[in-house]
Amino acid sequence: MSGQRSLRTWLFGRSARLGWLHLVVGGALLMPFHLVGTVVVGPLAGGGNPFLSAAGQLSAFAAVLPLVAVFGLLAPARPLSVATVRSLGLAPARGDGFPEGPARTRAARVRTSGWFTLHLALGGIVSGASLALTPFACVLVALPFVPALRESRYGLPEFAGQPWALALAPVAGVLSMLLLAAVSAAASALLARCAPVLLGPTPADRLAAAERRAADLAVRNRLARELHDSVGHALSAVTLQAGAARKVLDSGRPDDVEFVREALAAIEDTTRRTVGELDAVLGVLRRGEDAPGDRTGPALDSLAGLLARSGVPVTRAGDGDDVLAKVPGPVSREAYRIVQEGLSNALRHGGARPVSLRAAVHGGELEIVLENPLPRRPAPVRPGGGRGLRGMAERAVLLGGHTEAGAHASDGVWRLTARLPLAETTGRDPR
């Protein structure tokens, strides 16, 4: 019983019906080629009118298959074939492994041409059989019951009027339709088996997809670092300044009102600047791409402003602004973020204690050294925190440089050192 149900499903189930419809679409796509072949090649086969000659039709069918193969080499053939397969439910709408775009490489075009030719050839056979065999089967089934059908004007053989022929005619009609269903199901199964092979991604497609995923991840990581460094630094500075202002107010000394005013002004300036940077990063996220216009951001020419509103006293040494302004843009922007994150760490772990910064260009690289006193007691660990050092290291590595960070008990300082090559030919600009 289960075997009969499986056979019935294979012949007439939903997949079989969709497969037949897919083959009919192939036959429809073959029709223009077939008409051209009938007009051009059909007369060469002889037999009179090529549209009424079986030899002419078969010759035209065989002659146009090379033309179909040539058309399948065109780039749009693959998205057309993939869209047809998906729209008829023969493959999931997503996650089926089929490439989205047109065939670009030679191997992809050859494979698409093979699929396109196979689809149209099988579709032409099944469509032609469906058009010709269905009315013929209906005539055979109705032959014993409609005497008018047995007249010679319908072109039926003389034995069609014999009793044994009349008895077998309905059986022959049903069997012919079952045969058509079996041929259609077999052709659909063949196409389903060949689709992943011929329409699936080539090694070049897989490599391109992997590169796109890697680029997307790189953009996401860069935006995460931007948010972490910018917002994290701002919140650390605001927290320290607000805490200092609260302590001054609690002390009740009226002569410290000016200090509170300066702290509130610094908080206002920091939050306004951070909101602007946050809007810029979120704008990139909304567009979903890393457009060239998004490659701007604070750089070393804004270093003086960063140090002034960092929330900690900073002693600066090394090269001046005129030298740092000549640092290439990608290096300058990443260096700014490294200094910003270093100041955030110093503020978070050491409080408002003096920090020394040295930024200098020598030996074809930019060296940044930032030192702050070791904290008297370890700062509490923030849930989900602890990514600052790794983010700085990633920024440096993307430029071909490196960072070092750690406590130096002999000097009583925490030291961050970053070395960034100045050459722009590395091709590693993360922006």
UniProtKB/TrEMBL annotation:
The chain crosses the membrane at residues 20-45, 51-74, 116-146, 166-192. It catalyses: ATP + protein L-histidine = ADP + protein N-phospho-L-histidine. It is an enzyme of class 2 (transferase). Keywords: ATP-binding, Kinase, Membrane, Nucleotide-binding, Phosphoprotein, Transferase, Transmembrane, Transmembrane helix, Two-component regulatory system. Residues 220-288 form the Signal transduction histidine kinase subgroup 3 dimerisation and phosphoacceptor domain. GO terms for molecular function: kinase activity. It holds the Pfam family HisKA_3. Its EC number is 2.7.13.3. This is histidine kinase.
